[in-house]
Write a structure and sequence with these properties.
The complex is a heterodimer of chains A (315) and B (402).
Chain A: E1 5-16, E2 19-30, E3 34-38, H1 45-52, E4 60-65, E5 68-69, H2 73-82, E6 83-86, H3 98-106, H4 115-121, H5 137-148, E7 155-159, H6 167-182, E8 186-191, H7 194-200, E9 203-208, E10 211-216, H8 218-225, E11 230-234, H9 238-247, E12 254-255, E13 261-264, H10 269-279, E14 286-290, H11 294-302
Chain B: H1 3-29, H2 32-59, E1 62-68, H3 83-92, E2 98-99, E3 104-108, H4 118-125, E4 129-133, H5 137-146, E5 156-159, H6 166-183, H7 206-237, H8 239-244, H9 250-280, H10 291-312, H11 316-333, H12 345-351, H13 355-365, H14 376-396
Parallel strand pairs in B: 1-3, 1-4
Antiparallel strand pairs in B: 2-3, 4-5
Helix pairs in contact in B: 1-9, 2-7, 2-9, 3-6, 7-9, 7-10, 7-11, 7-13, 9-10, 9-14, 10-11, 10-13, 10-14, 13-14
The chains are: A alpha/beta (315), B mainly alpha (402).
The structure holds adenosine-5'-triphosphate and magnesium ion.
Chain lengths: 315, 402
């Protein structure tokens, strides 16, 4: 029987004393896709991942990983052979080098990939002889990703693989993750970067306070909750800003944190706006249309702002 | 299950155990302080115990000052008729001679009690003991030989009780007096004590007693602290949970760490023996191959205990405190450093609840041929404890977060 789903979760609940960290969630992840668990701090992402990895007790509900029941001991043993994990707080032997650490973890498995290939994959060739304790946070994460792949797993859990990375390293990590997908692996990643989910994920589940708010492809989620496209008029000085504001009053103008004027883009609105501004000789610097993002989805689903992506991550 | 299957399983387990063992060893070698403190501890202990309890009574020499105020002059050539000279001769022969029994040196105090009281003389000269033969003593002795109603003839012994060795000196003088009573004056001693050292520790010097004791104390302390520290730290850094998400079994993990503790134990043992040998002439012939299983199962016992403590006390500092409150009483009560017979009875009973009691008992029994036959019970207990605590430690270890 060929499994269609890498993960099936039914009514999963996790309580810490009176705090309900995971509140009756159910969803499925198809084999071979990149799944992103998107949510703010304390949403319950790590808790869910750890339950699936078999390293945290659940309160109730059911979960199947690659068709195997996490409640059955024999099944769990099999699961551990075919999954890879990157913990959110990844630590390994401090006084061992990059290469020694990789070798250590590969010896936990009956079958493992060549250590040098993994080093090349995450671009750590220069650091093979550096001790783990002397690596920067970003390099530690990259080693962690390499270690999560030592057993050539079918399913990889990456708990915040890019948190704390600089934009370049983040992009490189995205490439690695896309590479995993092209090898047919399933990737379960957690993140609070909406851009990351949007770029990488086939399916995104938005989790907030232990509840799944919605699940679907980024496009589906945006169509459902993102609202209309927007027109953004960029301007450089307060006088122009006020002028635009007055001229576009009927469109219900808003201001974003960059001081740009934002209006929702109904049919034909763009040409009207351009005409109006040109007729009045307004010195705006740019005018663009924007699709709503997962950020907007999150805002509309929860009434809260998820996270402002670092300015350094630009298009 | 097929044979190849089992062979393959063993190979994979061995690989994991080897990986943990070698990474622990490598990490340990690369941390200087850990290396230093593991080895400095038994060396300091052996030097300390060796000097404080071992060497002192054997090597030191006592000086006994005497003052002979007796001026008995009859027939000087014949000692038998001059009890004062006879006594001094028996104590260690005349002036400034050594008595081989106790390394006793006799020195004539050479002062006059008419000028200075013996109490003041000892005080002024900072002398701990003084034997005084009063004037007329020999005459009194000779008188009492013929006249049973004559008063007893006494000599005087002055001592400073803050010197604990006064007792030994006094006993010696006492013994000599008894012998004189019997042999020279024909007064029979009706009852007497005859002392013989027992075969158990016959040829065991203090150092021979302490070397195995300190090895076992170090192994028990280092073993428990080592595993408690390792287990709580791995939990705190999350390392253990990353490990738990791989196929490794808890028993493989525990085996690797206990094996490492046993290897450390062997290193400590070798080092302690060498220190004892170089500094104090430790009797190497007491080394016996059976000490190796004792070390291994001993390490397993304490490693297992460490895992059990770490299971229930999760915060590293609290776990260390819990370990200390076990390790310290065990060190003093278990008989590893002090013979358990010297303890009050109720403490002797408590001592038997400490694993170290049996392990050091086993260790000491194998050291001498005469006690060798006693080894089997404590050795059996040691092996059983090693296995039980190892299994309990691995089973109780929890690799799943609550
Ligand atoms: N061991 C624990 N005991 C009690 N509460 C816990 C424990 N672990 C997590 N929680 C709580 O459960 C909730 C979910 O935590 P979780 O770590 O799953 O969130 P997360 O989505 O991974 O957050 P982050 O993005 O910060 O990693 C939080 O409110 C957290 O405080
Ligand atoms: Mg988390």
């Amino acid at each position: 029987m060929k499994e269609e789903y890498a993960i099936v979760i039914k009514n999963l609940v996790k309580k810490y004393d009176d705090l309900i960290a995971v509140n009756d969630i159910s969803f499925k992840i198809k084999i071979g896709e990149i799944f992103a668990f998107l949510g703010p701090n304390g949403a319950g992402k790590t808790t869910t991942v750890e339950i699936l990895e078999g390293i945290r007790k659940k309160t109730s509900g059911q979960a199947f990983v690659l068709g195997l029941n996490i409640d059955k001991r024999k099944d769990l043993e099999k699961i551990k052979k075919i999954i890879g994990t990157l913990p959110q707080e990844f630590n390994t032997h401090e006084n061992l080098t990059v290469k020694e650490n990789l070798r250590f973890w590969s010896r936990m498995y009956a079958y493992s990939l060549p250590v040098d290939d993994l080093i090349a994959l995450v671009k750590l060739e220069e650091k093979t002889k550096a001790k783990f304790k002397n690596l920067s946070g970003g390099l530690k994460k990259r080693l962690g990703i390499a270690i999560s792949l030592v057993n050539d797993p079918e399913l990889v859990f990456l708990d915040e693989p890019t948190t704390g990375l600089d934009p370049r390293a983040r992009r490189e990590t995205w490439e690695v993750i896309e590479g995993l997908k092209s090898q047919g692996k399933t990737v379960f990643l957690t993140t609070h970067y909406m851009e990351e989910a949007q770029v990488l994920a086939d399916t995104v589940a938005i989790i907030h306070k232990g509840k799944i708010m919605d699940i679907g492809s980024p496009t589906q989620l945006i169509d459902r909750h993102g609202g209309e496209n927007r027109i953004v008029v960029r301007c450089n000085d307060q006088e122009t800003r006020d002028k635009i504001h007055d001229l576009l009053f009927n469109f219900g103008p808003l201001e974003n944190e960059d001081g740009d004027i934002v209006i929702s883009s109904k049919k034909g609105a763009l040409s009207k706006v351009v005409d109006l501004l040109d007729e009045n000789e307004v010195a705006y610097s740019d005018i663009i249309t924007q699709r709503p993002t997962l950020e907007d989805v999150f805002l509309s689903l929860t009434g809260e702002i998820l996270i402002i992506d670092e300015k350094s991550v630009e298009d | 299950m097929t044979k190849e299957n089992i062979g393959e399983k063993i190979r994979i387990s061995a690989r994991r155990i080897g990986a943990i063992f070698s990474s622990t060893a490598l990490g340990w070698i690369r941390t200087g302080p850990a290396l230093f403190f593991t080895f400095i501890y038994p060396i300091v202990m052996i030097l300390l115990f060796g000097y404080i309890f071992g060497a002192a009574p054997d090597d030191s020499m006592y000086t006994l000052y005497y003052l002979n105020e007796d001026t008995y002059q009859v027939d000087d050539q014949l000692y038998s008729n001059n009890p004062a000279l006879l006594l001094l001769q028996n104590l260690g022969l005349e002036n400034e001679t050594l008595s081989d029994e106790l390394n006793l040196r006799l020195v004539d105090a050479n002062f006059s009690t008419a000028i200075l009281s013996p109490e003041n003389w000892t005080k002024e000269n900072d002398v701990p003991y003084l034997l005084l033969i009063p004037s007329g003593w020999s005459a009194a002795v000779n008188e009492s030989k013929t006249n049973v109603t004559a008063p007893k003839a006494n000599i005087e012994f002055y001592y400073d009780p803050s010197y604990t060795s006064y007792f030994e000196i006094q006993s010696l003088v006492d013994n000599v007096l008894q012998e004189l009573n019997l042999n020279e004056f024909g007064i029979p001693t009706l009852i007497a004590i005859e002392t013989t050292t027992t075969p158990e520790r016959q040829s065991l010097d203090y150092i021979d007693f302490y070397v195995p004791g300190i090895i076992m104390v170090t192994i028990s302390t280092a073993g428990m602290m080592g595993l408690v520290g390792m287990a709580t730290e791995e939990r705190q850094t999350g390392f253990i949970f990353k490990l738990a998400a791989t196929p490794i079994k808890k028993w493989e993990w525990a085996t690797a760490h206990l094996f490492w503790q046993a290897v450390m134990g062997l290193m400590v043992a070798v080092l302690t023996v060498l220190t004892g040998w170089i500094a104090f002439d430790f009797n190497m012939t007491t080394i016996h191959p059976l000490m190796i299983p004792i070390l291994i199962f001993g390490s397993m016992t304490f490693g297992g205990l460490g895992l059990i403590i770490a299971r229930f006390v999760k915060r590293p500092e609290a776990a260390m405190a819990a370990t200390m409150s076990f390790v310290f009483p065990q060190m003093f009560l278990s008989g590893a450093l002090f013979p358990p017979e010297t303890l009050p009875e109720y403490l002797q009973i408590i001592a038997k609840f400490f694993p170290l009691y049996y392990i050091s008992e086993a260790m000491r029994s194998v050291m001498l041929e005469s006690t060798f036959s006693n080894v089997w019970v404590p050795l059996g207990v040691t092996i059983a404890m090693g296995i039980v605590f190892f299994i309990l430690g691995s089973i109780l270890t929890v690799w799943r977060k609550e």
